[in-house]
Amino acid sequence: MAYQTSVGNTLYSFPDLKTLLAKASPARSGDYLAGLAAATYEERMAAKIALADVPLKTFLNEALIPYEQDEVTRLIIDRHDTNAFAPISHLTVGDLRDWLLLDSTDSVTLAAVAPGITPEMAAAVSKLMRNQDLILVARKCRVITRFRNTIGLPGHLSVRLQPNHPTDDVRGIAASLLDGLFYGSGDATVGINPASDSLPTLMRLWQMMDEVRQHFDIPMQSCVLTHVTTQIQAIEAGAPIDLVFQSIAGSEKTNASFGVSLAILREAHEAALSLQRGTVGDNCMYFETGQGSALSAGGHHGVDQQTCEARAYAVAREFRPLLVNTVVGFIGPEYLYDGKQIIRAGLEDHFCAKLLGLPMGCDVCYTNHAEADQDDMDSLLTLLGAAGISFIMGIPGADDIMLNYQSTSFHDALYLRSVLGLKRAPEFDAWLTRMAITEASGALREIGRGHHLLKQLPFVSGAA
Amino acid sequence: MDLIQHNPWDELRAHTSARIALGRVGSSLPTAEVLKFGLAHAQARDAVHRPLDFATLRSQLEAHGFRCLQVASDAPDRPTYLLRPDKGRRLQAPCAARLQQEAPAPELAMVLADGLSAIAIQRHALPLLELFRQHFDTDWANTPVVLAEQGRVAIGDGIGEALRARLVIVMIGERPGLSSPDSLGIYLTYQPRPGMMDSQRNCISNVRPEGLPYALAAHKLDFLARQALRLRLSGVELKDDSSLQNVLSN
Fold it and tell me: Which amino acids does the record list as binding adenosylcob(III)alamin (chain A) (predicted)?
């Protein structure tokens, strides 16, 4: 079905829904690279105007990627909750924006409709929203998840401690881990991106983190970000795995390029659940996503990169994750060119995920060939803090020496807490106070040479 | 008066080059650390945008007895190069025609592409090529060394095909990290032709004195090149079993 709108004497026609969505998407290099972006500013606005009039029901009848060809489409359609959708089923995309912004549309209402909203509806409405709309509505969404602590409470912010090392040196990783703990980071997870994929190397990483956690009785969860099939193997071999990680995307073909499918993810989820390692909850999956991955893998089916990204959240939603992380600026300037595009994408991803009911965090980041710098990251970080982001990354000095990109630091998290009054996960916060790392107020204490944790350094080296 | 709250765990720096124990002023980074980070980022940014001095590199290579040719990709400038990876992978049509007129490669075609870090090629390409020449026995006098401007890895496919090479070896500037603005990558592709998949290549990455040193890189390259020619393939089916221990102990 074609979608049309006239601007003056020009008739703009869009042959199908995916073309309409792509042309309505805010400008970004990846959609130009794919040949999907609007050709002019006016065409982009014409597409937005036409999109505003599309009834939400259309998204249930016109699949962007055919149902028969794609298991993510099947998941989206088969899991759609008609009852939850009922209160908004009569709305158009433009109406949905208005409805979301109403004062009367509160946290409880948003949580109730979440299962009735498809990723495509979320992506569509985001294209009509300004940055402040994305912040305002995301802030109203409450998504709370639990494993050994509680993530996502209002007024709280967690941090994934990312202590990577280029050769997986266990002492090097432990050094960054300690640095992060002393700076009050690590309540979302301690998650290592390993350089190696050899099982013995990975086993040492899981064991080291588990020994440190148990020795100091830290209410945290750890994770090694290796392929999900390797983690299933490791669970069978007895590895102490808290969270199971995987990168996911919004089409079956893209997921296949990552070596995963819904069936493999289901197997991994069941394996993780079987360990029953959570103490306050059983959300045990950690997913990463990012705009551009579908095009990069040749799996976008002519769908714009932001809509592809939102479809990945349907995959995440299926497995009740503890954490979902959009690694927004990692992919490079051919997908998100500069600070402006990275900031917009970060806000869109956070909004869409929260609207769909996911515990969304963001790796606020960029590579050195993108037109961006730490000032842009400060802006996005602050905006996401205002939007109620569930967690951010904590990397020593914001410099990942393994993955060669820049993200946010332990200091950056302290900045955000200070400016916006955001607290850590309560269980972790209590531990920090008990360990005399923070004051009861949450502020860092001065750490002297005689500090308990420092005196235990030989233990940490021993764990290595 | 010391304004900075120092961290008494700086001894842990012995175990990692990560930016740990930076200290703080309030919640924030001390000025010296902000400046250090800014300098590293500036160097990485410059590495991306600084053009490769092809004339100097060419004369150095020729002085060392290498047979040099020069080509360009379809990306006319750096902004296009960054936005359109497809153009950086494609050999400019007139260059392809010109290469076909050249004497064919006896066995190997070497490609030096600026990639995302010109200084990686400027600093490391010549010493690496010299070491590789010592290891690897081929008709070096006639082996073409092709300098490729605004090139990505796959530009080697078109170059290798035009020169009828059995194996193309692309040395290219990698995406600069904050503490590694001059990292060089090496890619080997057997029987190159446009449209090759990444899974059909072998890669040696992070070549620089502080990363993978020249001697080790040349040793790995020699091993992979010999194996690729012997097995008539490259990529995932060709495993890097080169025994680095031998090199390290020598």
Answer: 194, 246, 296, 402
> What would you measure as the largest C-alpha separation in chain B, in angstroms?
72
Q: In terms of Cα–Cα distance, which of B145, B148, B175 is closest to B89? A: B148
Low-confidence ranges of chain B (pLDDT < 70): 1, 241-250
- Run of H or E including B159: helix B155-162
Beta bridge partners of B173: B184
Q: Reduced to 3 states, what is the DSSP secondary structure of residue A138? A: helix
Six token digits for residue B111:
């490609």
Task: List the single best residue of A411, A438, A441, A452 to mutate versus B (max B Cβ within 10 A).
Answer: A411
Residue B213 lies in a domain: yes
CA distance A416 to A392: 10
Binary contact (A369, B116; C-beta < 8 A)? yes
pLDDT tens sequence across A55-102: 999 999 999 999 999 999 999 999 999 999 999 999 999 999 999 999
ipTM rounded to 2 decimals: 0.95
Q: Which amino acid is present at A384? A: L
Range of the domain at B15: 10-48
Which amino acid is located at B238 in the chain? L
Average pLDDT, chain A: 96
Closest residue on chain A to B33 (Cα): A397
Contact by Cβ (8 Å): A209, A220: no
CB A268 within 8 A of CB A286: no
Give the domains, in start order, of chain A with CATH numbers. Answer: 3-140 (1.10.220.70), 145-434 (3.20.20.70)
B69 and B183 in a single domain? The answer is yes
Cα(A248)–Cα(B195) distance, rounded to whole angstroms? 26
Are residues B141 and B33 part of one domain?
Answer: no
Kindly report the pTM of this predicted structure: 0.93
Number of domains comprising chain B: 2
